[in-house]
Specification:
It catalyses: Hydrolysis of terminal, non-reducing beta-D-glucosyl residues with release of beta-D-glucose. This protein is α/β, with parallel strands linked by helices. The protein is built from 17 helices and 13 strands. The chain has one domain: Glycosidases (TIM Barrel, Alpha-Beta Barrel), CATH 3.20.20. Bound molecules: ligand GBH.
């Protein structure tokens, strides 16, 4: 008996962990070094579009403070950092015939070199919602399949050429559901199109989100094909999409509510994951409800989309109790609640209404995705926003007990899903490295594991960052001696 065989089981030595961010949420410097506008620039400045009326012009100032951010990551000792590239910094007007901005390339190139110098693996998202404004104006952005596909592929090609010698982990699109349903259905995210005329003069929530989703899938698949055909062999990396999705449980054991929970999974996850991982049409439950408003894949498109992700990129935050009913099509006509039939709450309430802390749901979702899609899972986002944290002093905010509780639960669930349930899970990124611009919430909702004082831009590690770092240092096996 060696000591080792008695040692506590650990996660594989090559398990990747770290923190995630996105360009528009942290960079600021929106009119610096030739950056073009993104659809979030003007949208966030329109009255009523963000809760506190604030925009992304400064954010966490990370375009200027990127070295400091790398220092912070190095102090934490993360293995990897997930960030996104702002398309309008690389190609200010966005299109395939528009000029490429050398200063934009230089910024990300320096960032990547800086990370690698500290031994941190860059995990890079190509599209985290900051579409060049010019493309939205030119042809309707994601609404125009032919144009957006060619322009997104071109942008990706510029990135593979410029960074692919050093980046081995690529994500095409972050949360296509949010782009389509929130950007073109609810109209709460840029470009803010919706049928609700109080919010937007233009838009059709009954058709546009489904067109946009289809175009996202097709454009994503073309980017993956490009990478596999022209770069993968030489650069040796992997590429995939990352989907948002929360675990859905039936409110009670009535057959309607059991069906509703599955329908909710279909409308959030299956919408994208079924075509990508199973190569099938959109889920039957969607076809049944939406009929011809849901586009049809051509044979050629479906062949391209099928298998177009090297892994399952999973962003998840919470669990919902599902009830049949309502008329919100983006929820699949499912009503959700956190209050159980006996009146108790599922878990701690976060600052945002849509989030409660329920760790068993995290484990259940991992199992569901692994069984259904059989693709190695990379948890690319997961996190919690403490209630009223923005009103607290730094001293109080960094003692983020509720966020620590959240991460304790999910990391235990992660361990169990890997070591007991046998799910193939290869990465975990906490959202987020820093408090940052939380889209329509402005700066009122803080998701950071590091507190940001927006007056001074000083960063303060929260207890939750320390917890995650300690967990992964203790639970990931040491690299074998080479
Ligand atoms: C992620 O989305 C984003 O990738 C990231 O940029 C963001 O900062 C982070 O979450 C925290 O929010 O009120 O009906 O519109 C998470 C998935 C899906 C969660 C939509 C919020 C809002 C539901 N999001 N959901 S609704």
């Amino acid at each position: 008996m060696t000591l080792n065989s008695d040692a506590k089981k650990q996660l594989p030595h090559d398990f990747i962990w770290g923190f995630a961010t996105a360009s528009f949420q942290i960079e600021g410097s929106t009119d610096v070094d030739g950056r073009g506008k993104s659809i979030w620039d003007d949208f966030s400045k329109l009255p009523g579009k963000t809760l506190d009326g604030k925009d992304g012009d400064v954010a966490t100032d990370s375009y200027q403070r990127w070295k400091e951010d790398i220092e912070l990551l190095a102090e934490y000792g993360v293995k990897s950092y997930r960030f996104s590239i702002a398309w309008p910094r690389i190609i200010p007007l966005g299109g395939r015939n528009d000029p490429v901005n050398a200063k934009g390339i230089k910024f990300y190139s320096n960032l990547i070199d800086g990370l690698l110098a500290k031994g941190i693996i860059p995990f890079v998202t190509l599209y985290h919602w900051d579409l060049p404004q010019a493309l939205h104006e030119r042809y309707g952005g994601w609404l125009n399949k032919e144009e957006i596909t060619q322009d997104f592929v071109h942008f990706a090609k510029v990135c593979f050429e410029a960074f692919g010698d050093r980046v081995q982990n690529w994500l095409t699109i972050n949360e296509p559901w949010c782009v389509s349903a929130i950007g073109y259905g609810y109209g709460r995210f840029a470009p803010g199109r919706t049928s609700e005329r109080s919010r937007s003069a233009e838009g059709d929530s009954s058709t546009e989100p489904y067109i946009v989703a289809h175009n996202e899938l097709v454009a994503h698949a073309h980017v993956v094909k490009l990478y596999r055909d022209q770069y993968k062999r030489q650069q040796g990396g992997q590429i995939g999409i990352t989907l948002n999705g929360d675990w859905c449980m039936p409110y009670d054991d009535s057959p309607e509510n059991i069906a509703a929970a599955q329908r909710s999974l279909d409308f959030h996850i299956g919408w994208y994951a079924d075509p990508v991982y199973l190569g099938t049409d959109y889920p039957e439950s969607m076809r049944k409800l939406l009929r011809d408003r849901l586009p049809r894949f051509t044979d050629e498109e479906l062949a391209l989309v099928k298998g177009s992700s090297d892994f399952y990129g999973m962003n998840t935050y919470t669990t919902k109790l599902c009830m049949d009913g309502g008329n919100d099509e983006f929820q699949g006509n499912v009503k959700t609640t956190f209050t159980r039939p006996d009146g108790t709450q599922l878990g701690n309430q976060a600052h945002c209404s849509w989030l409660q802390d329920y760790a068993p749901g995290f484990r259940a979702l991992l199992n569901y995705l692994w069984k259904r899609y059989q693709s190695p899972i990379y948890v690319t986002e997961n996190g919690f926003a403490v209630k009223d944290e923005h009103t607290k002093s730094v001293e109080d905010a960094i003692k983020d007990t509720e966020r620590v509780h959240y991460f304790k639960g999910v990391t235990a669930s992660l361990r169990a899903a890997i070591l007991e349930d046998g799910c193939d899970i290869r990465a975990y990124f906490g959202w987020s490295l820093l408090d940052n611009f939380e889209w329509a919430d402005g700066y009122t909702t803080r998701f950071g594991c590091t507190y940001v004082d927006y007056e001074t831009q000083k960063r303060y590690p929260k207890d939750s960052a320390k917890f995650l770092v300690k967990f992964f240092k203790e639970n990931v096996a040491a690299a074998p001696a080479s």
